[in-house]
Amino acid sequence: MRDRLQPSERLSDQLAARLRETIDDGAWAPGDRLPTEQQLADRYEVSRTVVREAVSQLKSTGMLTSRQGAGVFVAPRDHARALAFDPAVLTSMEGVLQVVEVRRTLEGDVAALAAERITPAKARAIERALAAIDEAVTRGEDGVEQDLQFHRAIAHATDNPQFGRLLDFLEQYLRDAIKVTRANEAMHTEFTRQVRAEHMAIARAVISGRPDLARRAATRHMVAASRRIAEADAPVRQALTRVLSRKARRDPTAA
Length: 255
Fold this sequence. Notes:
Blueprint (H helix, E strand, L loop, with lengths): L10 H14 L12 H8 L3 H13 L3 E4 L3 E4 L18 H24 L3 H19 L5 H13 L4 H26 L2 H19 L3 H20 L3 H15 L7
Antiparallel strand pairs: 1-2
């Protein structure tokens, strides 16, 4: 049976998503051997190169495994899989907002835990990171890297390195969107003040050791960030769409 893919998105990404769904739905169980490259190419009406790229994506996440001379198989459920999002999150405003929503949940708990475990040294690091944002803006920079570093400083204060790794993972899906929306904020003085006030509220709550307040401040910040993206001016939304479109043409497995 043929299952034609749509040409509007990268064929390898679409095929990887189809294969992932087939595995998740249980049609191919752990230990099952996949059809050959040619069989998959015929079924989905794509080239064998597209099949190889799609299979490579799923191998990189640990969902598939190769056996020398035997073919490609579905990995066991207890086989460690790399964390990965559907590449579609890189290509649309909706996808960006979904990642922001994930980050919102994470940032609230990270800030609360950081407040519980704050020390004078950690407080100084957070204060330095906060000041670095203002210094970057004063120099005429967009302050995006300093903004991300501020959130890393909060994560570092939890004493749990996994939080920092999770934030780094999410950043790869948000960095370009943040750069574009920061340009939107720069055109609106009120937006700039809002972002600075939100950062200061998080820092004060964490440094003062108030977990509940820190959680609320971080959550409010991410809710507001989502709103600023969703309600960006038309030229900014168009610029973001162009950025996402370019990103869609890249290979997301390199992220």
